[in-house]
């Protein structure tokens, strides 16, 4: 939306309806909106192609409502709220239209389904317990305009489950591999596909898993080429990065 406004502003300069000096002033006056408790980055979409995302954890429902409402007032759609607890989602949903997924704790204000990239992002998990993190990645990617295919519970303890979906994996533009325990899924997937693999370690596992640290270190030490790693339980970061790769990659 901000990119469209900038283009309209430049067109007015081209058509002689606005002087260059006036255009510069307008751009200077709208880099962010100060709400007191938050400064909304209104130029984020112009710089990065994706609007600012609201991190719900630690914010009150009233603050989230204020930020989302201000973004909506600027024409914002598909406003993404991550780590939004169920209690806050209920309050926010009473004030503004909200689509909420309790598993991933993702909230979306003004959801608009639109595919803007030609490739597919595959999201695979080692086990069912990894699904909340995987859904955070999958929904983030979908909101950002990507087609997403989910392959859940295909961990290395039953490798035949993963291999039965090899055609889906090899057709993907990007694969997000989400796993806890020893985090071996990312290496296996990395050795099977010819596309980037984004590994997401989860905090799922027994004591020596150290809340995801063992999976993180395993993924960082992957012997498969083309595997990158985000932080523990960071499904959002994986979905965001996968979307950027998919929009750059084009057709496979």
TrEMBL record:
It comes from the Bacteria. Residues 119-251 form the PurE domain. Pfam families: AIRC. PANTHER family: PHOSPHORIBOSYLAMINOIMIDAZOLE CARBOXYLASE-RELATED, SLL1489 PROTEIN. This is Nickel pincer cofactor biosynthesis protein LarB. It comes from Caproiciproducens faecalis.
């Amino acid at each position: 939306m901000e990119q469209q406004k900038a283009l309209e502003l430049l067109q007015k300069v081209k058509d002689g309806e606005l002087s260059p000096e006036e255009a510069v002033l307008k751009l200077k006056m709208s880099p962010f909106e100060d709400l007191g408790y938050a400064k909304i980055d209104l130029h984020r979409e112009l710089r990065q192609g994706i609007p600012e995302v609201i991190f719900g954890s630690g914010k009150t429902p009233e603050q989230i409502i204020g930020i989302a409402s201000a973004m909506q007032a600027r024409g914002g759609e598909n406003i993404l709220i991550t780590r939004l607890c169920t209690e806050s989602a209920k309050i926010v949903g009473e004030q503004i239209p909200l689509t909420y997924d309790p598993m991933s704790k993702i909230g979306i204000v003004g959801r608009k389904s639109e595919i803007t990239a030609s490739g597919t992002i595959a999201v695979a998990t080692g086990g069912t317990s990894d699904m909340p993190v995987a859904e955070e990645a999958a929904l983030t990617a979908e909101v950002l305009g990507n087609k997403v295919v989910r392959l859940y519970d295909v961990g290395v303890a039953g490798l035949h489950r993963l291999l039965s979906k090899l055609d889906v994996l090899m057709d993907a533009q990007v694969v997000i591999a989400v796993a806890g325990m020893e985090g071996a899924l990312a290496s296996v997937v990395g050795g099977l596909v010819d596309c980037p693999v984004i590994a997401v370690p989860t905090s799922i596992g027994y004591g020596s898993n150290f809340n995801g640290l063992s999976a993180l270190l395993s993924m960082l030490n992957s012997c498969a080429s083309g595997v990158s790693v985000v932080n523990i339980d960071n499904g959002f970061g994986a979905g965001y990065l996968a979307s950027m790769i998919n929009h750059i990659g084009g057709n496979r």
